[in-house]
Sequence to fold (244 residues):
Amino acid sequence: MNIRPLLAAGLRKAAQRIDDRERSESPEPRQCPICGYEGAFEPFGVVPRPGAMCPNCHSLERHRQFKLLLDWTDWLPPGCSLLHFAPEGAITRLVRPLCEEYVTTDLMRDDVDLKLDIEAIDLPDRRFDRVICSHVLEHVNDIAALGELHRILKPDGAALLMVPIVEGWDTSYEDPAVTGEDARLLHFGQKDHVRRYGRDFRERVTRAGFELSEFAVGGADSVRYSIVPGIRIFLARKPADRPE
Ligand SMILES: [Zn+2]
Fold:
């Protein structure tokens, strides 16, 4: 039996129901912190997430959470140099105007300023004030990558890290015997992921020499700005040099 047409029809129906609910029963309109739009948001995603997309600027939940971080914290003060791994246009548009120097990088893509391997970054020590590294570490040797991020940051510099985490697990799940796209999809949730993180992600970051803080958006604000509840942005700071 071919279940694909049934699945497709089911997804369409679910998307319509979510869309209807968003428009008719939403007790309060959503607000977009990026463009200022107020009103119903649109569902978005392969399995549609209600209210995921701002219909005016097309921002998604993670873009709005990032904007709230910029608005509510001093993570990115004026005058910084920033290196952005695997850049997304929506985040680039927010960050570039705030930076003194803004550099994009990716190992595979051609539409970036530098082709850098995050496991062996071809840059001098203490080169950047800030790094953005969102949904990269679950694809690579993260111990090597975190060490390299620490090396290229200036003292008192900081990296913004986002990874998918299973908060119910003490320990990350990784197994070098799991290779190939199908096996990785089954074990790690995506064909090019090499692990699923548990709560010990934090220890991996601090073992690389960082001090860690976390940014999450609370319940009411998650509704107002349509943020996925409970998603953490990890802020890893390289301690300042001690005076001699
Ligand atoms: Zn918007």
